[in-house]
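Note to self: keep these together.
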Amino acid sequence: MIRDSDPTRAVPTRAGVREWLGLAVLALAVLLIAVDATVLDVAVPFISEALGPTSSQLLWIIDVYSFVLAGLLVTMGTLGDRIGRRRLLLAGAAGFGVASVLAAFSTTPGMLITARVLQGVSGATLMPATLASIRSMFRDPAQRVTAIGIWGAMWGGGAAVGPLLGGWLLEHFWWGSVFLVNVPIMILLLAAAPRVIPESRDPRPGRFDLVSAGLSILAMLATVYAVKETAAHGPSWLPVVLGGLGVVVGWVFVRRQRTLDDPLIDVRLFRLPSFSTAIVANALSVFALAGVLFFGSQFVQLVLGHRPLSAGLLMLPGTAASVVGSLLAAPLARWWGTRLALGVPLMVTALGAVSMIGLSPHGGAVLYASAFTLIGLGAGVALTLTSAMVVETVEPERAGAASAVSETSYELGGAAGIAVLGSVLMAVFRGRLDVTALAEDDARAARETLGGAIATAKRLESGVGAELVRSAHQAFVAGIHVAAIGTALLLLVTAVLALFLLRPARGGAGR
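Structure:
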């Protein structure tokens, strides 16, 4: 729970200059994480060439950061209530910078995966401080919605800067430079946060339940690993066992929370339609955004042949649209009401996803940029609105737990988008790729990734190599079509559920 450090202190109703400066620093933390989440998208082909990861290792490099972060958010949020949210923010920023340096100078896929894990641990200390601090710093409802819109816009802005900055860096430096961009942001955050963000902690935090913390981490990681491995390689005994373990541990965790005086998560929140709808919409919006970024960067570079900077520029309209969407969320909610302001953008996002079935191996850069712009615009509105719904649904003293759940869905949605859509795409890719003319070793290398197929083609005779490239491009685009249709259906179902579940009670004055 969130309580003021000094409950007797009078808190101004409206925020002043210091609060808005504090918001800017909190937004830096979000920017740090967002840049790191998307800057890697344009670097995927370079990492594949330099480190030679398998398709499974490549997916882990991209998404293990988000999985670890999602698994630790609830625990770190509760820890911040006890030791101080600003202190946790500063510790996380320092750790994130160190882990980024380690990632930049990695020499093997395993080393890079380890660095990404450490980034995830550090990132989990950063995220809980942001949304919960906004809830406590901005008491005026109108100012708070505006602040959350800015917070969301910074995430979109970081996503927009990531591919563009990554493209520029890859044009001039080695692939590890995409991680070093975190360091100056971390230094600025460490210098500014103590001056403009007030320390806050729960003066009566209750007992920290280590058992619940362990259960939440184990349930999250076991379930996610099972889904990821099954999607990538098909059913086998280990993912099935771990998936079952994750479900059982999750059930035990929920049962335990119902009996504790100070639970890590108040599971009763999920009985509220507005809260549960916001969480699902949050996760699926990021699912679509992250998945499209992951396979889109490979399509633009490896299929259409654009250089990294050019690829970043093609992604810029979509990620910039997410910033615009974040800032539009508050006025749309006032004009249309929450129900339509959430449902319509989700439909726009679904439209952007399904339009990608028009992509082909011979072109489609403008279509991809347009589709991604629709996805970014719809997701920007939805993500900001759902974040505001989460903190507005619960009492102020429960905002910390609610924020942790929201951010967990945010990170898990992004990681699942990369893992699930990436795995579906690669399953189609392997099924469609024609390797009948290749030796066994070459066929195995070509099936690993699109980059692997192109690298294999370079070693073959010109005729055989050209045919392999043609087949790889066609197979990859076919995978994009399947992933896009699945994403559009999920988003459309979520939009319909939002329109249905957020209907005002009969005779009520709700929207």
